[in-house]
Amino acid sequence: MTVRMITAGESHGPGLTCVLEGLPAGLELSAESINADMARRQLGHGRGGRMKIEKDAAEVTAGVRHGRTLGGPIALAVANRDYANWQERMSPWPVTEDVAEVHLPRPGHADLVGTQKYKQTDVRNILERASARETAARVAGGALCKAFLAKLGVQVRSHVVQIASVCAPERERALELSDFDEVDASPVRCLDAQATREMVCEIDRLRKANESLGGVFEVQAFGLVPGLGSHVSWEERLDGRLAMAILSIQAMKGVAIGDGFAVAGVPGSRAHDEIFYSPERGYYRETNRSGGLEGGMTTGQPLIVRGAMKPLPTLTKPLRSVDISTHQPAQALRERTDSCTVPAAGVVGEAMVALVLADAYRHKFAGDHIDDARAAVDAYRERIGWRSSS
Fold first, then answer.
1. Among 5, 84, 302, 384, which lies 20 to 30 A Cα-Cα from 207?
2. What is the pTM of this model?
3. What are the structural domains, with CATH classification, of the chain?
């Protein structure tokens, strides 16, 4: 059993579509919880004017009846309100008026290479699909995956740990699920109050200098059973699949699991998580340097994945480029843009991690109905004597 997601749509087209396949029948869903995640994707200090136009909501058009999944593919539609201002330029069908082509590719975007690969003369034919607006559809599908995981005792959360040069301090203890209760109240979705203030100031400072900002978010998943994924094949290793999922998000340039790159600089005695056992707790660890993954499989500890995001390539003071119609030097395209979307990227990261985990649970436990899946998970927990450490 496989959970698969495909999205369609352009940034300024009529709307976005998400089709999610592989969830069991009988899973209870709510429009409120789906749209709550859609709204969270629009949060964050540093967002631009587009967020004042779009008030995202996902409409279920297939696969759900009376609030429960039917076992078939689920289709969701997300309307682009801004399409009202782009109907001539983005009409699916020929229009009578001339629509000027865009010939100014942006460094750091898909613009130039996309026109070469797909034999296009208009950069807009590339940039519209390459836009991070597509992630609204991913978040809609990810919300369904999170609903499925919640029925199995798994919760997925995120927070921001760095924006530009400002880093949140390392915590002295491992995060717990309750630590994330108020994360969305922070304008940058950071758990540290002082770092939040400094991040907001950094965004304001660089935005005034016509700059964009990148950063790092962290996703954690609580309540996982050991043994999701596998060591027997490279394509079944869960860490590889998670890395692909995070790096598939627009503007991501790096991914780390657990201590990530830091573990490369310490001796082995400080790189691994020693194993203990007690009759009350079963097997347990006192550290989680591995980020909840060993040998391509979950350990049962909280899963910890970080994504590193580059500054957005659309700048209010454009970078140097070349006009692809004349080959003459020119400034890159300037469109309405955000200065910082790291807080929103964390919510997209949640959706992608939830997708990978939902697929891993379906692959291991199957079940045509949600009750079958839950029974299979319970039987497995009993067989291995697992007592959750998260």
1. 84
2. 0.96
3. 4-384 (3.60.150.10)
